Amino acid sequence: MKVSSSRTPKSARRRVVAGAGALALGAGILVTGVLAPAAQAAGSVTFKDLVLGVGANETQRYVTWYASAGTDSTVQLEKTADLNAGAFDEDVMSYNASVTPTTGSSGGDIARSPYRGSALLDTLEANTSYTYQVLASDGSTSASYTFKTGSFGLGSGFEFAAFGDPQLGADSNNNSQSTSADLKEDAAGWADTLNVLQADASDDALPLELLTSTGDQIETANVESQWDAWFTPDQLRTLPYAAAIGNHDSSDLGYKYHFSLPNNDTTTANLQTTAGGDYWYVYKGVLFVVINSNAQSSTKDPAHMAFVTQAVKANPGAKWRVVSYHHALYSPASHANDSDNVARRQPYTQAFSELGINLVLQGHDHSYSRSYVLQNKGAGPDRQNAAEAQGANNVLEGPGGVIYVTTNSASGSKYYPLTEPISGTSDATHSGKYPAGTMPWAPGPGGNHTLHWANSVENQDNVRTYLKVAVTNDKLSVTNVVAGVCDYPNKFTTQHVGTFCGASQTTTTLADTNGNGTFDRNQGASGAPGQPTNATADKYTATTGVAPVGTAQDTVNITKWDGTQGDGQLIALDVPPANPGELGWFINGGNHLINLGTANRHGNYFTASGAIDPLTVTDSRTFGDTSWSLSAQVSDFKDGNATLLGKYVGWVPSILSAGGGANAGATVSNGYSSGTGLADSRTLASAANGHAPGSAQVGANLNLKFPVSVSNDGAHNFWGEITYTLM
């Protein structure tokens, strides 16, 4: 809840815009250092692990933190331009916080704070810089931070970043101790990745506005020293962050305490682990759905897909749809064929194809891969276009097409080597359907690597990376960017956990930095002032084949099928010459798929039902014959050699939004008993000559009834086509 401060008329005074430590990021995004808090009575409450989170849409932000006491608190928010010499004044707005006790213990040497606080900042204005801090009723304050909103709505576009498995503390000595050199190196790698992203985005055409993850923020879910290390970068307080739950986050309440989430399902049992469930949000017209993939079983997976379905239905106007979760369905390394991931491929990919999901972001396998455009019409996942080139930089997503990306480590704490497809299985060729793809990589130096059939690109250079996604109305540009090289901070290589680094896989030179006569992992170092121990410990000193920081390892531009591109069109349009003025139409909705679901049997026949995507007809003609008619016809449905006649489909047209003189067409019965149903062209809507100019939205409920003999030879997944003609 927002509580506005009481205001008095301002006296004449000099206005100073706070800017100490500020750095412009991207096209107008502001990332700033700490501002001095307003002068107040010193209190006794301390705050830490403060994070800026996404709200339900771009007009909101969550602020969440740990506190040493349960004192009533608010978040103070003021337009940065209105600050008085960097301090909050009578223009400040205060948002009541929920401060609640935490439970559970922390492993390691840092105890869990006894309280967590959270507040929702809403009614934000577009293109505005805000400064905020936490204020307790005893006068205690947190440090102050600044964020900037962008334009509302997609407009010219924006960028967001995705991070894979920082997993601070992985493969570490004393990883539950805040003093661990390994943990400090992971934290340094994580912070450096965010700094590299910030510098990279500063000269991009589109502003960086959102940070996301695919899970595993830390190694051990209840170790607060690892959470403290993860929260080090200030970018987590200046750009909204949306985290997925990884398997290393899942088993404790730490994640739930640290993040406040919009549209968060905390009650559906099949979606939950200790850390939480699924959530969704919309940012500038893009629907983001985040799944807790740790909740997995034959009953839990359908619950996740039901949640995604609800989110899609709640946001029919979303321009793009992005799903994130931890356990990758398609990846290139140690988890590439884990049984739990393989079990999800059929239900997840079918749901994603039917729901018009465009991009799926995954983690867990500490490596990078990008799939071909995949689809699943019910018979199993497959490449949508058999002719798509390996590593293509420009791809077209037809209806039901989805790209799956697995993100590599953002901290350098752990990498997995690429694995070869399982010999004697369909892993490389999809049961002989495609030739095996190869690339110059092997688990050891030299040689070639065979790609898993679903993946167009696979990579493991054992260097930190992040994913950057540029979003515009007509394209998603997805780029995997190098964030670091083999030397510090990149613990997997500097501490000799991994034995190679770089694209050529050439073994690197090891240095006896501490001078004890041998190469030791995590042993004593020179102890240079101000440096973590690992920075001067024995490490790699020379590498080959490592791309410079900021290099794009892989880029793909995803264009969404809009009914006019490509060879195959599921919905066609035939428009004859029109009178002066304009008569046009378009199909509302995202993927142009009409999903009739699974047919229900009733004795000797099956039935199914659904609805077409609404169509908008606009007619601005004012003279001549202004009549028009929009008709449609359904083809026969096919599944291999099996056929389901189009005549078995009937409909009930309706006008969803009146205008342009539109009238609904007549109800057409399905042809099960008699007649031709929609196998013949039927009128969906029409308007008489002389109607007033305007637009109308039209729709129709479909009904299907056909004999059981259609499936005498087994189950089928039928696909047909509906063709619209406007005259």
What's the helix and strand layout?
Blueprint: E1 2-4, E2 22-25, E3 29-32, E4 47-54, E5 61-67, E6 73-79, E7 93-96, E8 98-101, E9 115-121, E10 129-136, E11 145-148, E12 158-163, H1 181-201, E13 208-213, H2 224-230, E14 241-242, H3 254-258, E15 279-283, E16 286-290, H4 300-314, E17 320-327, H5 339-355, E18 359-363, E19 368-371, E20 374-375, E21 382-383, E22 394-397, E23 403-406, E24 438-439, E25 449-450, E26 455-459, E27 465-471, E28 476-482, H6 491-494, E29 509-511, E30 539-542, E31 552-560, E32 583-587, E33 600-602, E34 605-611, E35 615-619, E36 628-634, E37 637-639, E38 642-644, E39 649-657, E40 663-664, E41 682-687, E42 694-707, E43 722-726
Parallel strand pairs: 12-13, 13-14, 16-17, 17-18, 18-23, 22-31
Antiparallel strand pairs: 1-7, 2-3, 4-5, 5-9, 6-7, 6-10, 8-9, 10-11, 12-27, 15-16, 19-23, 19-26, 20-21, 24-25, 27-28, 28-31, 29-30, 32-35, 33-34, 34-42, 35-42, 36-41, 36-43, 37-38, 39-42, 40-41
Helix pairs in contact: 4-5
Characterization of the model:
The protein is built from six helices and 43 strands. It has 727 residues and is mainly beta. Strands 14-13-12-27-28-31-22 form a seven-stranded mixed beta sheet, covered by helices on one side. A hairpin with a 2-residue loop joins β37 and β38. The radius of gyration is 28 Å and the shape is globular. It starts with a strand and ends with a strand.
